[in-house]
Amino acid sequence: MRKLNRIVSALALSFAAMAAQAAIPVATQAPVKNVVLVHGFFADGSGWRGVADILARDGFNVTVVQQPETSLDDDVKATTRAVNAQEGRSILVGHSYGGMVITQAGNDRKVAGLVYVAAFQPDAGESLKDLADSMAPATKGIKATADGHLYFDPALFHADFAADLPAADARFMALSQVMPAVQAATAAVSQAAWKSKPSWAIVSTADRTVHPDLQRFMAKRAGSTAIEIDGSHAAFIAHPARVAKVIEEAAVAAGAR
């Protein structure tokens, strides 16, 4: 009888401990502290400087990926290397084409959540070209070279890519733009990480490079928490505080899961 009582008491204590653990508010969970930033076409990692500085000031460990843009697969591998170099889980953030990259790379077990910034959010089997063709942007500035790369017409860069940046800054970005391989734009993702990971989407309402309504459609389809910014395609540069705030909110929410 005494042995039975001891067993009952032990079970009661165990259930009490489980109940106490379950009662801990979600808000007490630690946020994800790693943030990996992925740039898009016609830009490079330096565009994340303002966002990265804010995140670092607020205690986040920030990594900026300088992917080669030779193919979607190469860019996913570069991003996955950055994720796997971190201690613990990461929030993946992608701008524009970077959304394609994080949608595939985000399937890694060390990715806690995804943040899309004026970005493409493909489903499995979709390429950037598929999505852009489904709802054409306002700009006519994206052109191809004879050897299979893309570039943004410098004459249209300020108005259509970075209208909310000073003209001098937009001019330098146009002169120093990264020219991606066409095959990076035509390759499809095989698995959409937003189906299994929480996601957030910043929609740039004055975007002339990725149609704002396409951004809204993709965010709604993915079930992303959507935030709208009155900004150009380069909103991640022009509005770093707004973008960093969303990333930090994502880190807290993803850390509670």
TrEMBL record:
Residues 1-22 form the signal peptide. Keywords: Hydrolase, Signal. The keyword Signal applies. It comes from the Bacteria. Gene3D superfamilies: alpha/beta hydrolase. The keyword Cell division does not apply. SUPFAM superfamilies: alpha/beta-Hydrolases. GO terms for molecular function: hydrolase activity. InterPro entries: AB_hydrolase_1 (IPR000073), AB_hydrolase_fold (IPR029058), Sec-Metab_Biosynth_Hydrolase (IPR052897). Residues 35-245 form the AB hydrolase-1 domain. This is Alpha/beta hydrolase. It comes from Pseudoduganella lutea.
